[in-house]
Amino acid sequence: MFGESHDLVHEFPEHRERIHELKINDHHFAHLFEQYNEVEHHIHRIEQGIETPEDAYVETLKKQRLHLKDELLAIINRH
């Protein structure tokens, strides 16, 4: 949805503490978390009209965000 926050803690508030612990203790999780935040920030700028790329690029970013979110959630659920 336009303008809606998709940061990981907002998406999974029930895992707030686990996300924090993993960011500190799991290098791979921290790296994916950083990538996710970068993609999310870029999408947010596009939704605000700050950037205006091609629709295909926006869809690629959204797919990348979803893939990263799935990977991060899988790690969260394993711990």
Uncertain spans, ≥5 residues at pLDDT below 50? none
Portion of residues within helices = over 70%
Main sheet overview: none
Number of domains: 1
Strand content: under 5%
Global outline = elongated
- In whole angstroms, how far apart are the ends? 30 Å
Given the helix and strand composition, which structural class is it? mainly alpha
* Cα radius of gyration in angstroms: 13 Å
Can you give the mean pLDDT?
A: 93
Number of helices: 4
* Topology order in helix (H) and strand (E) letters: HHHH
Give me the count of strands. 0
Structure description:
- The mean pLDDT is 93.
- This protein has one domain.
- It is an all-alpha fold and 79 residues long.
Q: Gist?
A:
The chain contains 4 helices and no strands.
List keywords for this structure.
single chain, 79 residues, mainly alpha
Chart the SSEs and their pairings.
Elements: H1 8-11, H2 16-25, H3 27-47, H4 55-78
